[in-house]
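Running this now, will post back.
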Amino acid sequence: MNITKILSKLFAHRITAARRWAENREGVQRAELARMIKTAARTEWGTSHGYADIRCYEDYRERVPVTPYETLRPMVMRMIKGERNLLWPGRTMRFAQSSGTSDGKSKYIPITDESLHRSHYRGGGDVVAHYLHQHPDSRLFSGKSFILGGSFANELNLPAHSKVKVGDLSANLIDHINPLVELLRVPRRDIALMSDWSRKLPALAEAAMRQNVTNISGVPSWFLTVLREILERSGAKHLHEVWPNLEVFFHGGISFAPYHAQYDGIIDPTRMCYMETYNASEGFFALQDNPESHAMLLLMDAGTFFEFIPADSPSALPIPAWEVEQGKIYALVITSCNGLWRYPLGDTVLVESTSPLRITIAGRTKHFINAFGEEVMVYNTDAALAKTCDALHCEVLNYTAAPVYTTGKSHGRHEWLIEFSTIPEDMDEFAMVLDRYLQQENSDYQAKRSGDIFLDRLSVVKAAPGLFDRWLASTGKLGGQRKVPRLCNDRHLMDRMLEMNNQ
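Update: finished.
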């Protein structure tokens, strides 16, 4: 008996809901916003913004400004200390730690009970529903899910008596998971939530390699390291030798493109499916509902109200989901049931279709590196570089950085190309100190560097004098407004610059 066919009926109603969004995304989104405004009307935020008098989206747009995290941080920190009814009713006991903004190393996203169930868990259920709809012969529930989680490690130094939990989103999701779902998941919770990756990696491998795993879920870069550990310990060449019934990888967090070939190298591609998801700390936003397309279906009734700012007009007013145009790139602004009100997410998306509303992630609103889930931004690298130069008594004229992707024989890392005006005495020491300061500036980079398991220490290439000017001249952009891209999430700029540097 294929139990998956029986259980799939429990998810079928979400396919029907998705069809409803396609027909009436405006009505569904307006109802979602109205429900959140009504719920939060008596909170400190709702009272100060007159939520009791808001009757529609147009009222909301007039009363509530676009609100970056820097504005919300004081209230979030009060919530972590135990205050109630600030951004959302009641007391919030969970927070997802992620890379910070310009006013701090980390940001802490509230995870309310409603956001857990209406957004994150509902989104996970929608993923299963769409996968089973695409693959009616699936045997997904005949085995277990291998879900790669983080930990509750944080740098807040909370008092011992505090019951508040702060850590990775995945740690919060696993820690609060339904006991029935827990029966279908590996590894055990105590292993999944370990913070020391030097101990966690072998524990994960040992816990999962003897199970009947049918599906895996996680960030591609992290999971690749775990899967290679399993292959090494088992002596197998391909994962289907370890898990004959493995059928799908639900992935998200970073682009899968640089890793696809590497996964195909350790998995039988004829027996494997891949499904992209968009599950951020702030909410579960979208999923790939068509295996023939990388576009993701935006979830219209999962605890998030979406607004969009044209990427080519960052000062323009946001528009709602029912006014976006196909083929245009927008910066996302969200209102969600965790108490984020008109919050700029920092992601840009390309609208692939409007009925239903499907998107692909275009990038970030600023230069960044997120090849391994580290979300390093320019203010992180600027600060780390300044501290390094101060410590080692050297000076930098210009720099850029890009990822070096994981291979079968090496971990990934960041590669920096730097033109110095005062050269450090020891380049290896410079790279070591810069890496240490970058970890201090960015908690996600620090996590990926832990134990040298996922990311190696960054490397530094010394640029020849005038290299960046020559590169700018080659692009036609040399002049008074010249700008060298500090960070790039792929290597198309770096490789060209290195080629010029070697000539």
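The longest strand covers residues 340-354. More later if anyone needs it.
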